[in-house]
Amino acid sequence: MQSGSCLNVWARGKPNVAEVAKCLGYKETDEKTVLQKLMKESARTIVNSQFKIKDGFFASQIRPLGPVIERPSPDAFLCEDPIDIIKSGRHHQIPVIMGYNSREGIFYELIRRTRNYANLQKTLEQDVPYDCDIPENDAEGRKRVAEQLKKYYYDDDDISEDNIKIRYLLTGDIQFVYGIQKAAQLQAKYGNQPIYVYRNSLDGPLNFFKKFCQVKYFKTAIMINFFAKMSGSNAVKSIFQNLRNKLPSNTIEGVAHADDIFYLFTTFFTPKIALGSEEDLLIQKFVKTWTNFAKYGNPTPEADEIQNKVIWKPIESPEIDTIFDIDRHARLTDNMELDRMKLWDSMYSKYTV
Description:
By secondary structure, the protein is mostly helical. It is built from twelve helices and four strands, in the order ααααβαααβααααββα.
């Protein structure tokens, strides 16, 4: 489970058949009727229509499209809240790898650019999770929580482009890290199989998603990537890749959401990899660890030079005390996010019914 869990705030949708029907121009709002009509639509029509549905990717709002808790029926897939399933011990008892990248929240920059949020939001009400059970009409309650977040993350400084790194940290925590750590903690507590947790700190040459999020000429980068994908020739593709790499970008330390993918799979971003190159060696680190887990149920069944002879241990305490830090030199670490996770634990325990 890479950079996501069922407990992340973005992983839940709402029943919205009426909104879907409206976007497609249907008069009907009955779920079965709308489904039958959807099955006859072209893929293009469905994709174009989904852009009419507003999705700000705010923690304060349940997503308009996503998994929902269904009414019990023979065909239902999910009839209970995932956290209740985990706490009951009825989740599948299997070894699990789960983890996150060191700066997941750099992803915020892509959301900001593709949803026309040119101006940085100056308050944090939209970062107060919808599942904190603060009533929608309790604006003062939401404001109080937002002020607590601002005091903790910004030390009451003004929110600005100058401290954008804090924005990335906050977004990463509430959108990704907290839900992942909570899922790991609960699955270890209520399960009987090893849970391996990683933190990906590898800020390397194949971190293309981070570069894409932070490139200064975003539309130009999109066009270059499009032409690279459509070129059909490795030589032409290489020319476009070199052009893309020359575009100026911001330089924020850390590993963005989705950066790990490029060390596991070949994509149209991927250049030709020379055997023995830095890229090749870093790919081997990721691939061997993941394939070891698939083969043995253990990511490091024996000490190996490729992972700095580190044995990755499953977590044993609620504080997630053993995290495998993936970098050029792998190591086991304590939970570097622990203090921030305690803040979110405290907030949820105070405001969740």
